[in-house]
Write a structure and sequence with these properties.
By secondary structure, the chain is α/β, with parallel strands linked by helices. The protein is built from 4 helices and 6 strands, in the order E-E-E-E-H-E-H-E-H-H. The protein has one domain: Nucleotidyltransferase, domain 5 (2-Layer Sandwich), CATH 3.30.420.
Length: about 160
């Protein structure tokens, strides 16, 4: 099973891709998977959304995940219009791309992720890269990529319990 964890932070999609072959002891990081997707700065509105959708779709075609799992936000109020619009646009492009590529899509709340990886939900930012077998912390780990990997691990862990 290939799972792509996605965390949206500061207008960027952070990716954590894991592969969990059947019978394997622990999931492994997918080699060559992108770390993040930053929307094009030179585009706005519909053109920016279309470009983001196309780029997500390209990444999904290359990675060929069985599932994409989004980290649900912990912020439930005091959104600026710009923040909310950016997040909604990124998530909408991701969801549409998953639907087009026939990839299962699910959003996991931080409470569920925390329970499955053994961390309090508010402490997911401290998720250790060593938990997934990495000896060095990858780029963008604290910006959102670590939480994306935690979501992917939670999804794999939850699936193995069923």
């Amino acid at each position: 099973m290939k799972v792509l964890g996605v965390a949206v932070s500061s207008g960027v999609l952070h990716f954590g891709a894991l592969e969990a072959p059947q019978g394997a002891v622990a999931p492994a990081v997918m080699v060559g998977a992108p770390a993040r997707l930053v929307p094009a700065a030179g585009l706005a509105g519909a053109e920016r959304l279309a470009d983001t959708f196309d780029r997500i779709t390209q990444d999904l075609r290359i990675l060929a995940p069985d599932a994409v799992v989004l980290v649900g936000t912990r912020k439930h109020g005091n959104w600026t219009y710009k923040e909310a619009t950016e997040r909604i646009s990124l998530i909408s492009a991701l969801m549409l791309s998953c639907a087009q590529q026939n990839v299962a899509y699910e959003e996991l709340k931080t409470e569920r992720i925390g329970k499955l990886v053994g961390l309090p939900p508010a402490s997911l930012g401290t998720f250790s890269h060593e938990t997934i077998g990495l000896t060095q912390r990858p780029p963008y780990w604290t910006a959102g990529r670590g939480v994306a990997f935690a979501a992917a691990l939670a999804y794999v862990t939850d699936g193995s319990e069923n």
